[in-house]
Queue: 4 jobs
Job 1
Amino acid sequence: MSYVFFPGCSLDGTARDFHRSTLAVAAKLGLELPELKDWICCGSTAAHSTDPLLADALPAKSLANAGGATVAVACAACYSRLKMANHHIAGDTAVRARVARVVGGDYDGLTPVRHLLEILCREIGLARIAASIRRPLAGLKVACYYGCLLTRPPEITNFDDAENPTLMDRLMETAGATPLEWPHKTECCGASYSLTDASIVLELSNEILAMAKAAGADCIATACPLCQLNLDMRQKDIEARFGRQYQLPVFYFTQLLGLAMGCPAEELSLRSLVVEPQELLAAKGIGC
Amino acid sequence: MMEHKDHTPAAPEAIGAVLVCGAGITGIQASLDLAESGFKVYLLDSSPAIGGRMAQLDKTFPTGDCAMCILSPKLVECARNKNIEIVTLADVQGISGEPGNFKVRIRQNPRYVDLDKCNACGDCTEACPVSLPSEFDRRLGTRKAIFRPYPQAIPNVFGISKAAGRAPCKASCPAGVNAQGYVALIGAGKFKEAYELIRERCPLPAACGRVCQHPCQDQCNRAEIDEAVNVRDLKRFAADYIHANPEEYPPAKPAAAKLEAKVAIVGGGPAGLTAASDLALLGYPVTLFEAQAQLGGMLRYGIPSYRLPKDVLDKEIQYILDLGAEARTSTPVADPKSLLGAGFNAVFAAPGAWISRTLGIPGESVAGVWAGIDFLRQVNSGETPRIGPKVVIIGGGDVAMDAARCARRMPGVKSVRLACLESRAEMPAHAWEAAEALEEGIVFHNSVGPVKIQTAGGKVSSVAFRACTSVFDENQRFNPRFDDSKTSALGADTVIVTIGQGSDWGGCIAAGIFAGGDAVLGPASMVDAMAQGHQGAEAIDAYLRGAKLAPTNGAPASETASNPRPDAPRRERIKMPQAAPAARIGDFTEIDLGYSPEQAMAEAQRCLACGLCSECMQCVKACSAGAVCHDQQAEEHEIAVGSVILTPGFEEFQASLRGEFGHGRYANVLSSVQFERMLSAAGPTGGHVERPSDGGEVKKIAFIQCVGSRDAARGNGYCSSICCMSATKEALVALEHAHGQQLDVSIFCMDVRAFGKEFDSYVNRARDEHGVKFIRAIPSRVVETPGTKMPRVRYFDQAGVEQHQEFDLVVLSVGLRVPPSVREMAGRLGVDLNQFGFAQTERLAPQATSKPGIYVAGAFQEPKDIPESVAQASAAAACAMDQLASARGNLIQRHEYPWERDTADESPRVGVFICHCGHNIASVIDVERVAGRAAKMPNVFHAEASLYTCSDTNQQHIKDMIRKHRLNRLVVASCSPRTHEILFQETLRESGLNQYLFAMTNIRDQCSWVHKDDPVAATDKAVDLMSMAVARARHLKPLETGQLPVTASALIIGGGLAGMTAALAIADQGLEVHLVEKEAALGGNLRHVHTTLERADVQSYLSGLVAKVESHPKIHVYLDSTPASIGGHVGNFKSVLNVAGREKPISHGVVIVATGGQERPTAAYLHGQNRHVTTQSKLEAALAGGNLPPELAEKPNPTVVMIQCVESRNDEHPYCSRVCCSEAVKNALEIKRRLPRARVVVLGRDIRTYGFRELYFQKAREAGVLFVRHPEKSDPVVVEESGKLKVTVHDGGSNRDLVLRPDLLVLSTGIAPAAGNPALSGLLRSALTADGFFLEAHPKLRPVDLANEGEFLCGLAHSPRFIDETIAQAQAAAGRAATILSKAFLEIPGQVARVNPEDCVACATCVKVCPYGAPMINSLNKAEIQGAKCMGCGSCAASCPARTITLQHQEDGALVAMLDELLVAGVNA
């Protein structure tokens, strides 16, 4: 199967560490991820909460360029938007026609879209990943946090068990870490309120951090730039606001996987994490 | 169904038998009614026992009865009824024929236990090593592979669960060793039994447990979860255990037979030894010829002793020789044919493969180059082959590993290097062996091929290699390719070549010569060799017996079982301890150190039991009745029936599909069915409410309602009807179990749907007296708090505030749905299903399916509770009776008994039988001693202890003993009379003795079971119980059972829907009906109903019904009439009717009360004052025929407000009228249909549109009807403001007051009981409920029976209900009535009270105390008991001041004798 990679704006900006670590892991696996030609904004939030047509048209413009390849996505919001647009366009001829009119070309809504987790676990396969693990993350207790967008709505994303997804858990297990059974895998971090009412974000993200801590996590693994940002960058604010001490590094799952595959720390951009992971990694004997 | 009957009159050849599919309470009731009315019944169920879902319940609502206590007698009744044939573990495959004459194909699945032989003693379950999750307990507990779903199960026999395929471990063993079996036995700590099982197919278990290549383990399903079960090591453990504890295993028994024909076996390897063992066990004299000095073949000479110590092998070989095989070692046999001439009748040739293959390269014949096998043979013979310090092994297989590791252990060896063609990944050696070799310091050189062995001075100096680029070609054939440009060399003084072996066996073929082992297969594994040995032995045995060998079963069955528990928790494999690598290369001592028993058991318990039953045959050994038969097969057969009733019931919604609640993910989230099992005293926790996560105390419980109900998103848009009540019940039972401990219960729900009889008061009691909180919210999520594992429930409270509450336990009230297997069955029968998979029916014919002659009842028709199901069961039975009336009695079995012997002049001659009940009694009580004591008692002429007193053979024996000793009293000391008394009474009757000459005492349930720990005292108690029974027996008298003629007609009071339906259902069976209606026309309340919710035309249905009733020749209609008096009793009532002022006496056998009800008049909410205030029924009338009430006709978008529960569910009228919510929805929908812009607002506390009616509630909301929920005690307020209506209501959803100004205000007034109920209740001596409706005999299981025999009720006389429910009840009453009217005579039992009139002073105390109205003061002014009414309870006898009433069969003399025996004779003895 051949892939083209849709980085989205986050991976070009705030989540450059996600981008780099994704490419590092892909290189280790011999997985080629050429960037999708002429990709544009996925339309997340700003478009989809204001204009349904725009919300479908933006992804359509990008997806039409895939040229038969599967579109690989790392950002959960992009993934959600691309899947949604496909669903609307492929399922409703009127929508398809409207979209064709505004983007200036017909798009059938059938370009396959896969999240990195799906590609790694289902298409590359855990066996192949296991074979490329060089430094198992032994003793690292990870709370795998999927966020709200990957699994919902299940009939559209068809990602994994909507309430208790396990793809990332299995991946972390393969990397030698101990994924935790915890209940907040798909809780909302409040991302859509990031700009309008950050206090909601603090409250919701605090719930997630508190639950991860209570479950005994050493760190959190995420698959969404906004989740990572809220849990990591705002962790200090959350601690101050709620009088708690978490000190939970919040990784992208690709960073942890890269560590286990023996990628050098700089390829994984570990330094860009706000809650510094070095102490934890050193304590667990995980070199980087 | 009436339509069907009219057009398809029962054909003359109609068959008087009915198939009832599904043996829950519904199927049971239908069967009992049919069998009692003269029809043969096949009661079929796919499960191993009847009882269905009710058997799983702890208690019932609202009565609080123990479900099992009220169900169990029904089960026993079914079992006892000769005209009910119970067919369990069966499915319907297809149907042909037509109504009245169907042929139904039945598939009978195997039980693996003979129904007729099993005595349910339970010894098999004790012996069974396989624990499986118990489906009955919804996986909260475990059960054995041979099991009975619950102790009261009928048929009371065990059964075995087997998977569709065989366990992969077992299926993959070439030698046919039952791996799952011995693993299970080891897991249960039964090591000896495990060893025995292994030995059946593996004569060398300790060797095999060390060296087998274990295909079993490679196929293990556990690998999907974590890692395969360590099957081989477990086999080794079992063998080692017996070797270490030989006293546990008896020495070999000589063969059963001594046969003449002699067999020679050439080759003492595993194939030869296996054949020798098999043949010796069969009784053949066997001689083993072995070329080497000792037996064992490759096991001895090929396998190093660090893997298989020689003493282990020696022991096992000795065991085979002990069977009687003779060994001639160092005796090569060149030509096996010569043995045939030398006195042997057959030869098994298994000489092995001992010729090492050579490389064919220069230098190979130089000193220092060894053939692998020769090297190993020397090492394993205890010699020290002379090799140099630098060893190179050529080859990458297991023999190469053995050679390398042996060389590593040779003194003076410095380095061992191994070179092979294959890459590391391709090496053919087992991965674990390569790993162990690496650990021991052996160096691998992969992907090289030897070119030349260099020599120096006639000795090896090095080996030259070239690179091997690939070993296999595209077709995966061995075809190595080399790159000559890349060469290398390894210095060596010794080269050991291990590239395979061959045989010089020429394949000698002649009659009487059989061959096997490596010589035939080429080098193969030990287990393959054993397989060959078995086949050889079988072939030789067949040859010598002159029999043809059955087709070989060498190939394992193709179908293997899949993983039965994919969700099993991970549990790491327990590795067998090993010696450290550094320590082990010093010598040849064994590397693997063996399991401890604890380690072995723990490892064995990782087994998933893929085949379910492991076929270890322990049950066969344990069963003294010889009932277990593992080779049963499924069978198909055909039965002929006139009609089919479908009662397959329901299954619960799978709670885990609502993932947000975490069922299956969080230990303390249970389904309501699981919680019910937890509440049950017979359940997995013995009735203790505890947290499954840790068994901890429960202080807070939450119920979440509508999980899988009212959930259109998951395709379950209907309401499951029972969950509100069942959660309330479970809450109350949990509170009861808390014994005063603090227990906080919250029920999260949308509505509280307590619509049934007495339901609302039950809910109110739970709320007001027991503090159960009903929270109007459906939680959005449940999460588990880490650490405490408390489920945390998130919801929005009434004030709209988000709440998080932690509970110890969350119970999900799962809805009802139709199991896929039932949908498939319906498909095979050609019965239409509705969108949800329930049987498609019409409201006006609720029991008729789409296929004539097939009826439906119970939850498969629509979700419903027990009483509605039971009523439908009787209704469906009535439909079938109706159709098959002409065939009634054709197929029933009547038992003919011999003439009763007159024993009046005989002195008591008692026979006593003491039952072992397998181990149940005899393992505690010394039954022989009890029998011995009985034999010494006066009047006892025979006493014995028997294994199973109830068995068929023993009944014959009892008859023989009665004849032989001319016994006239029988005493049985065994189990419960409840289940077994009738059996022995039958035996008495068949012996010509009166059935009352029998005394039974229970020395099991209340003796051996409860005094397990004190056998001596238990035996004493059993002696006392037996002695008392004998004392009683001496006083028993034969009693006559009376017969009472039946007047075959029914009096039906009430000519509405209920009365007319019942009348037709009875009259169509050819029986007479007197139908009494107080008004001048038939029709009753139905005259005011125009359509159903589903828009069926009620009025034309009614006119059709009236026409049929009026024209029916068997129905006498009396209008303007009421009953003036009702006298007599069941079968023979004498009543007087007041017919338009004139008296008319009639005789009848039964009474059916169908007096209906009335709309409750109201003056509330300005009704009667403001003309725009109306009632739902008036609105319906106004809307009928396309009209509109004036308030609506005048405006384009009028506002209609409906107020629910007007003067209902309040203190004065606490009950719910059931129909008003749907009535409101119906009228609201009709208004919206006509005036889409009308504003319709329904105000109420709950909307109770249960079952499929929920869909119309949904439709109404979709149509824009607004439903406003107001809290309890805050009813809407209606005032008139300047001629306009103003309604103020508090909206619970928004928590604020709403003001509405309706053009039309519609009141949902409730249903009141009929005004005449109190008077009629007096005539019938039949009680009314506090609400004024008639009180049925039992709210759950006798919903249409009144307390007095022969009196029934239906329709609104019972409680408020819908048309379909009334029709069902009316037909049910008819069906119940038919059980009496279809008989010519009623039997009066012998145990009735009798008055000695001489001392009677007619004080009428007996008349007052009798609950059944049996005593009366007769014309002689003396008390007299009417036998037909007497239930034999003894109340009158106990209360008679003159002591002149005797309860027959329970006379004082017998009781005094029993006490004498216990207190006087017993003490003296």
Note: Chain B touches chain A through ten residues (CB under 8 Å).
Job 2
Amino acid sequence: MSTPVRDVRDTFLKFLDDNLAMPVKAIRNDPSDPGASVLQTNAINVHFLKLNLDSVATQQVVIDVLNDDENLAVDWMESIWTLLRSAFYTPLYNYSTPSVPVAQNTNVMWDRTSVKFHPVVSDNYTHYSCVLPLKFYAII
Amino acid sequence: MSLATRLTSKADKLLTKYQVTDSRDLYKRVITRTGGDALLGRPGSVTMVDTLLDPPPMVETLSFQRANHPRNFIATIGTADSVALIGDNFCTISVTALSQAELDNKNLVFVFKGGPVDEEMNMITYDAAVVNNAVVLWYVLLRSKGR
């Protein structure tokens, strides 16, 4: 049984992966996947930070665009910005069985005016990072 | 036989003869996930293949006394910019037991077996002893996942 927090994470990851024509990677600690905890170049890296649990909860997400081609990194960043500006919510699903997502009849929301990327200096690749708070109804 | 090959052979014999290890055996563990949904972290199945490092590596647990170790990243142990911490394991491993490709495999971890419980280790960094452009030995810094 997934918790709402897990559902929020899964839903946002799937939202990006389904709507962006670029590789999306979730950054997480996983003993069965040791490489999952490191940033990957030429990918959109997504990981989750601070969680404020309340009836309307906030889950911070960090979106890191890494590419060894600066022009491509800029294009990717713009695609993400366009996607997140085009909507301010996505339906929440439970992905306990990933092939059969179950609608939870509520939404994951974000402030679409808060999508701001800032550059992270690196000699070897271009890196843009965005911190975005996701809002969701925590009592289901 | 090249100089590097002779040195590798000699090093293998010395490592086997002296068995300078942690009293436990060090294994390399390759983790393979198949099926499932990698993005969500829900694997279909996970297999772990453990292979004993043979010849056995030389393993040193880093202590304050090792501050003057010849390896650079050990020499700065305890300082703010050091990659090594007290309690890390500094391993000298034969190229016969471990290849460059394996060291670069992000799905490789190390496991000490033979103690009360198996101890899984992450690789922090590695370095090579090179002769005539051929690697003779690996220097590998390991840190327990329990730390």
Note: Chain B touches chain A through 18 residues (CB under 8 Å).
Job 3
Amino acid sequence: MLARLTAAEHYDIRIAYLLLLPSVLYLLAMSVYPMVFSLWLAFRNYLIYRPDLSSFAGLGNFLDLSHNEVFWQSLQVTLKFSAIAVTLEFLLGLAVAVLLDRQMRGMGVLRTLLVIPVLVSPVAMGLTFRYMYAPSYGLINYLLSLVGLPRLDWIVSTTWALPAVIAVDVWQWTPFVVLILLSGMQSVPVDVIEASELDGLSRWQHLWRIIMPMIRPVVLVVLLIRLIDSIRGFDLIYILTRGGPSTATYLLSIHSYVKGFTEGDMGSAAAIAWITVVLVNILAVLFLRLLARGKA
Amino acid sequence: MADAVLPGPPGRLPAAAAVDRLRGWGLNGVTVALVALWLFPIYWLIITSFKPAEEINSPVPLFVFHPTLENYYDLFARFNFPHILQNSLVITATTTVVVIVAGLFAAYALARMHIPGGKHIALWILSLRFLPAIAVGIPFYLMWQRFNLLDTYLGLILVYVAFNLPFAIWLLRGFLVELPLDLDEAATMDGLSRVQIVRRIIVPVALPGVAATAIFTFVFTWNEYLMALLLTAVRSTTVPVTVSKFIMAYAILWGDVSAAAVIELVPMLVVVFLLQRHIVRGITLGAVK
């Protein structure tokens, strides 16, 4: 096929590559090189204060982790956090999207307002919720005490810290799910909606039998984005709890950060980070398969 | 609210129509209430920043309070905040400009020119958005230590450009694909080079999309926490890192914390109101295309 291109087209392809090249080269240098470097680190004993003593460790860092209970707890917390948070965000997001997918005066304004939580800095939001969770003067405990429930120190309790951080994550990210699902729903052709009205389907049947299958790709994509982003999450949880109490909210990213920058063990930190990368990749491949199957 | 509910199909009994209409109002009420509930924490943050200390720590949360600017005065007097704001602004603005310029040319080539393997390149670029920050943070820390780039503007900007370029290219590509193809053909006939086409034809036509992308880049860079925590210390530290350090202190100064968080929030709120429609499209386009 290339042979049949004219000289002008060949020239145009060269220009296209030239326009693309700076970005691609830069991204290669800034992603592939660090990732290879970090893989190299994962197979070494490397202390941040004594890089001169660094030595080859083989699978040592990974073996150490496999014997380390904290690592397994951290993996478990990460999976639990992602699974619960993303499920809640999806169900709640779907409900709100259905509510917003109607004719109403001021609907555009409501949709715009929903963008705000998505764009708020996790640091600012983490701090706000810490204030609202505070035991003696926090708003949430005050409201609970009004209905006779006990005041809790939410983010310091081993039982309640994880639900408390999940709640904040759900608060921040449900609007994102809403906006994406909504854009999917609004791309469903009007005659499909009218047809299901004529068939006398209830709203519920209409949603599950007609709309959901039609927006399946959008659903998968939003689930994938949220799963990956929650598995690699750091900011919000670190601000809220620093991973504590004990390992109650110790996400893999926080585990890696503490290993590397508090304990100075860069080898183990890189190993944990790479395990996270592999986890994210497995998920991505799984979802892309599902997407492809839907298209076939 | 008369137009809140579409009229029922003709021939419906008036009673059924009335029930429909009532249910519509009920759903509208629920919708508004939900959105209000969602925005409440931000409202609470903003009013907290204007409360005097004794009202902030009041066991009964106060909705009526005595507004004061003391938290803001305190913040600027005590924490060298103007300098930190300047750091954040310089780093964020530079990153945004570089990302948009480089991203526009790359997105243009991917969206509107014939590139063998272009689809694969586009997907590879998008996949970079999903790298865990900590996985690149560790090597960057060691690399920047060696190159003396720790705690410098340049060190952070180099990383932020790499972090934001993939999503920006993906978004811009989505916006550029939608433009009619004869735009470029006509311009080529007129003897414009590809670079001139991007500058003189594409940018003006795709301005809303370019602006939305710039805003996303700005907001993500402005909010970024982990890399700034790892790669800066004193001289080049940013607003989020500084704000987060307030809680390291023995007692949390909620007044200062909330004032700083509000300042962190302001650029974002301004931006949302300036470009509302395009932002909603940007968020959904980034995920759906």
Note: The two ends of chain B are 35 Å apart (CA to CA).
Job 4
Amino acid sequence: MSCCAPPVDMVLEIERAKSAGPSDDEILLARRQLGNGLNQTDLSVPSVHCGACIQAIESGLSRIPGVESARVNLSTKRVSVSWRGNDVPAVVPTLARLGYPARIPEDIEIEKDGTLSELITALAVAGFATGNIMLLSVSVWAGADGPTRDLFHWLSALIAVPVMAFAGRIYFRSAWNALRHGRMNMDVPISLGVALAYTMSLYETITHGHHAYFDASVSLLFFLLIGRTLDHLMRDRARAAVSGLIRLSPRGAVVVRADGRRDYLPLADIEPGMRLFIAAGERIPVNAVVLQGSSDLDCSLVTGESGLQRIAPGEPVLAGIQNLTGPLTIEATAAAKDSFLAEMVRLMEVAEQGRGTRRRIADRVSALYSPVVHLTALLSFLGWMAATGDWHLSITIAIAVLIITCPCALGLAVPIVQVVAARRLFESGILVKDGSAMERLAEIDTVVFDKTGTLTMGRPGLRNVTFVDEDDLALAASLAAFSRHPVSAAVEAAFSGRSDAVAYENVVEHPGLGIEATFDGRRYRLGRMSWALEGRDIPNSSAGTALAIDGALRASFDCTDSLREGAMSAARELAGTGLSLEILSGDKAPAVAHVADMLSIGMFKASVMPSGKVDRLDQLRAAGKKVLMVGDGLNDAPALSAAHVSMAPGTGADIGRNAADFIFLRDSLTAVPLALRIARNADRLIRQNFALAVIYNLIAVPIAILGFVTPLIAAIAMSGSSLLVIGNALRLRANEKRFSLSLPAFVRHFAGTRKAVL
Amino acid sequence: MGTLVYLLPIALFLGVLGLVSFLWALRSGQYDDLDGAAERVLIDDEKAREP
């Protein structure tokens, strides 16, 4: 792998990290104390991607005084730092200086539940046993006879014991759980087949019989475990990537005590009545009222409004809103558990219940499949009993039927396809939370979009620039660098780097107006047109942002929330495949209508409350629609849980990301049609695999019923059908490759034209 | 049959040896960072570089 080409999964939005490094206080809250004054902090470092990165980070960090050791894990893109004392060493700034923005990962508890190590241990034991038992079985099929055959059978029985204990347990447990709740899943016939095959073979061995099915029962478990382990690995990887995304809700806040002392308290300890200090750029942690200061607030993630909101003392603010331009002192009016965020969580829980239980395709199939299989086995037992009256022969044949129909291919049919599909999505920067999401995505007939932050970028992009002198643009960019206002960010991003930064003095940001500085005895203003021009004649276009020197207009910038890259083509493609599209936004009607018009989406609703979004989704569901919800904000989170299946951008609110089934990490909205296409392909392959399994059974079952099945035939039939199913699943990769060859070329073309416009 | 008496135990012992060493490697965290291990081979040892 070449070091300098960023790998495909390194698309975790790094550019936004500028303002998001965790503070020392946050690290103190998140540390793990190991005893002896030693602390450990795990940081997520998404941009690590090669050996040089490992070395740069490890040697850079271990040189900081106080740091005991640092170890990078390249697979999970984490660095684990152990350090001494109560003062946090400069780990995060050092990482940022080295070019690796770090953040505190979301706590994901599932990661440590030991399922993976249980699966891998089981897989290792099953693999070992399968190999050895097959070796012994081949000798038996080759003609080992008499005491040698008995010896081989006994050895096989012995080797199979740990497999039943380690690998079998996973299936027996799941099957028992299903049966206890009166349900059927794929693990029931598997467990029954494996357990009966083992018992019968043991009986055969004791009575010096000819046929033992130890190899069948063990290799069955081995094949199935491969599918299950791959599935688990894929989901683990998606989870690790999600947990590395930027945390948007703060872990705590600076509390100003009555005596002026400032403490950083965790979110849970903040009570109503406490005074909090919120610096520019931070998010409001709890619902509160502003006491002091004025600022511009970015509410896009909370209410979906795209415009900034001016705030003054006495006005209320909601948890999750970002404070942009000035420091604020606020008084908490609710604890974190009663704040806006918590309200969303409650709405999500209600929505979750309303959506009812979904059953995965595999479980639906097995609900049909298992009774048929069990009935067939029972009937062949009764038939042979009636015909021959031989107990032993009848039971042997019935069990052979169970083994041959054991859903080996069925158990692999779904997970293998989903793992291949999830990998394809992962390479395109789309994460899937679990396999059932892919099944649900393939069923949708309606797509509902949020506007701000989903169809649009949620931050302004430069539309139009007029200027007197080109040097003015560089002046504007270096002045804009002092502000967190989104328009400033857009100006800075567009024109920085054209010349050296100007050494401005006395930089002051006036919330709601703009930024002011002096340089060389002249006053520079970048901000609202009327303010920057200091009351002079405003040129015909009065809107927009201006750069003025001593009140004389030098440049003007027209910024609007721009459409997300690929929004047009995504909307066109989705509409083209016969889906109905809709926009539900918390923003005001004109802004929503404008976007809907650009994308030619007929249905839209503006100024919708979070509960209103859920109501609309309920309405659609009542009308029999299967809805894909795409949204990013806090206000979308309940709707994301209510929808049939949901998708969120990686830049969305934490809670929305956790609620969504799919997360796309790249900016382009073409991720939506791409995911849909892959899900539909996967769905088709799964159905084909089921068809293959049925055809296999149609051939194999009569042979088994007629009593012609020997362990050799069972082994060939079972591995043959498994290989067939796996091979078919891999076709998904081949199909998509042909497509993906053309995609990067298209993206490059698109990116090129965009640059030319600017 | 006579040869089997010692060949089989040897074969099984070697198999178990492989299994046990795999499980040991798993427990001792050697599979925690496969990508990192592949890259670390290429990193020079800090101590070796100092004179």
Note: Residues 2-27 of chain B form the longest helix (26 residues).
